[in-house]
Amino acid sequence: MFGETGGAWLRGRLSEAARSVWAKHDRRTDGQLPLWRHLADSGAVAGLLWDLWVPRQCRMIVADQLPGGVEDARRLAVWLATTHDIGKATPAFACQVESLADRMRRAGLDMPTLKRLNDRRVAPHGLAGQALLQEWLIGHGWSRSATLPFTIIAGGHHGVPPTFSGIHELNVHPDLLWTPGCESVWRSVQKEILDACAEMCGVDDRLSEWRQVKLSQSAQVVLTGLVIVADWIASNSDLFPYFFDSGSPSDEKRVKAAWEGLALPAPWRPVEPVMAADEFFSSRFTLPVGASVRPVQARSVEVARRMSRPGLMVIEAPMGEGKTEAALAVAEVFAARSGAGGVFVALPTMATGNAMFPRLLRWLRRVPDAEGAGPRSVMLAHSKAALNDDFGEIVRAGRRVVGVELDGEDDEWRARDDHLAQSAELVAHQWLHGRKKAMLSSFVVGTVDQLLFMGLKSRHLALRHLALAGKVVIIDEAHAYDTYMNSYLDRVLSWLGAYGVPVVVLSATLPSGRRCELAEAYAGQSGHDMSGVRSAQGYPLLTAVERGAEPLVETVAPSGRRTDVHMERLGDDLSELADRLEHDLTDGGCALVVRNTVGRVLETAQFLRSRFGVDEVTVAHARFVDLDRARKDADLLRRFGPPEDGAGRPVKHIVVASQVAEQSLDIDFDLLVTDLCPIDLLLQRMGRLHRHVRGERPAGVRVPRCLVTGTDWDAVPAEPVKGSQRVYRLHALLRSAAVLEPYLASTAATENVVRLPEDISRLVQSAYGTGPAGPPAWQDAMERAYEAHLLHQETQSAKAQDFQINDVGKPGRALIGWVDAGVGDADDTRAGRAQVRDSRESLEVLVVQRLADGTVRTLPWLGDGQGGREVPTEAPPPWEVARTVAACGLRLPFQFSIPEILDRVIEELEAECVPAWQSKESHWLAGELILMLDQNCQTRLAGFDLRYTEADGLEVTRVQ
Length: 960
Known about the structure:
Blueprint (H helix, E strand, L loop, with lengths): L6 H7 L2 H4 L2 E4 L6 E3 H18 L3 H8 L5 H15 L7 H4 L3 H9 L18 H14 L5 H12 L8 H8 L11 H19 L5 H4 L6 H18 L16 H12 L14 H8 L10 H12 L5 E5 L6 H16 L4 E5 L2 H15 L11 E6 L7 H8 L22 E3 L4 E3 L14 E5 H5 L8 H9 L2 E4 L7 H17 L3 E5 L4 H12 L7 H5 L5 E5 L6 E4 L7 E7 L4 H11 L4 E6 L3 H15 L4 E4 L5 H15 L11 E6 L13 E5 L3 H8 L18 E5 L1 E2 L6 E2 L1 H7 L1 H15 L8 E4 L3 H9 L10 H22 L29 H7 L7 E7 L5 E2 L21 H8 L2 E3 L7 H12 L18 E5 L4 E4 L2 E6 L3 E6 L2
Helix pairs in contact: 1-3, 3-5, 3-13, 4-5, 5-11, 5-13, 8-9, 9-13, 13-21, 16-17, 22-23, 22-32, 25-26, 29-30, 30-31, 30-32
């Protein structure tokens, strides 16, 4: 296998002029690599990647396009990698290093000097290579249009496929490809190299059949991604050393040493589970004592097994019903059948991603591989993954593996060495770190942004597509996204469907219209009638979609878990709230008060503390530094989590929280008070009410009760507070109030009782439908709100198109201009996330304290010895201190995202820049904005007073 590279063979087939063409040069050492050597290295790496790293699911995307199937696909991939840099055999490229250009001149390849080729930018070597391959294929009887889907891979191997204007500009500058007066020599050398590559790769006798192939865009993208990876690996001088003389190690030793040094983990090779559902789930998950598999879990697996081929499955089931476990079980079934090599789990936020990551690890340790499979690569893919303890433990657990840099890139995160967690056989591989390669790991948990970036015109987009084309994709909390994000999600689903990627979508509260949109996006033009998907009203509900087949919609029996929640209105006066809590908690109990803005959280908590005492009231919101947020989440789980996990549930306590209480935290309260919000989110909040089976609850809260506030209920129609309208917009709030009105007025068939889960789907479909809802006196105002909502949706949808890739094109249409007018690099920074979310760019700061004497230290109350540590300002801080500061990230609230204030904020924060923290030795802090609090943990920023406390997080007030 390792002797497959034909470097020596290739060299022996080439003339002196062809051998003189260079590909790589190290200015520091003057080492160089001939083009023939780099082409052979790249082809050898591509062959190894194809055989040992690319999942079968990806390989079949290409194989299904070619008359020779898998064998043809492998030959094509290796040939494209072998020829990808042929554009370096041109004057435009070769003139860059005078000593190497002079050697080529002496061999007969004349060219101008670098200074004389002022327009060489018109011929980047990728585009030049595309043009040369095109000419070569035309010489083998291909039409020009037939060549484009194949040659575009060379054109796009540096991350951006050429545009029509770029191709035209090169066509009018032929002197950049062939020096005038020496054109025949250049053409002869280029043909000589390409002829030899074709013979070496065994494609010369396949070209006549391939020219009839209309290569799909999905195959073009996969091949482009593979060639990029092969090129990056073959370009690394640690693995493939440059030549300092004419000597060279043998092909076999060179490639074997590089591949073994890289040590890329093989893809997951699952074995299709055939056992009954009870045995299957108990072997993969730790079920609570006495628990059995839920009907929706069992049916999900059965439906997955019944599908003729893996496709899209939408699982709608109540909160706490085990949808995540069902999704992982379905993913295992799908992967075994489709040949997927891993799983990506997309979640709404970093917090939900962090909560999911250890669950994925526990599952992975129980999932078998086919015989001979090795360690599995895992990744937590968001911008703060390095601060996650579970991920850090894997990274630190074992042996070092060689790191590999990008070809021509210097912005990769290199902070960690690679390690193998021997006990779990889970690898956090360094080469798979970084914003462009993290998704290439086999098992990835990340924010949904990482998935939506697949639809964003951006550099090296083919890498993200390659990564996802080989996985099963799980999308959690599918109801949590707005029109702008859904536009990206639908485009991504259309590409996933074209790739044949199995997808599992989870939601407890999915509107039927949105369910149908997801199914239509995945099914594409081949989709059948989706009216049954749209009209389905059952709950729990499974929807299965295969391209080219009728969709399956199945109502699943409920599990028997049921909570009857008594609904009541509550005025928005804080005294009324305190009186009600005092009454209901007379005999004890734990109440959750959810507010829609952090300002209301803090205002409410301050008032309730004056009535109940400081120790009886806790706040939870997103405006804490990361370490404090993690500590608060852990404390909430300890006190209010499942009975078997928690200890010391208070006799009486009130938690005032923002939307952080809606998801990711498995917490259970006796009483719920919530601001009015969209119905799906309100139902999520109600899922925290009497969530777990406990002993008898206190008398005043023995009946599950939800009090809806944050609204002037006497107004016509009901008028939500301004903060709620800013967050959710009026239409969704009024529809929510309208469908709740019969319960709040006790005129529903069940009087004031909402039955969970029976009423979930009906409430969601009513609220998000267009049918009449609410009292007659509300209708005019609701119609106006609806019109404003439609206009907002149209604006969001149009805005989302600005940087969105096109839908999958027809077979044979080349990827020319695929990411033209894009955003450059896509990443999980605040600016990157703003590209796929319709939100203002928010600033994140790292929070430290500066004492009166100028000493800078970490926040004093941080645990585990991290608090009160001095942070040097004259030199890079010690690693552990810098990491603590990096873990004190805080996102500034919306006031600081207003454009005219944002510029002022950045200017003031940059004035606090510590030069010693900007060096490469201080990678944790370099480039970060630092918020310096005084000794009282206060400061002033852009006309606002800021105060930070351990108990309440960040408080912001405008300077009067």
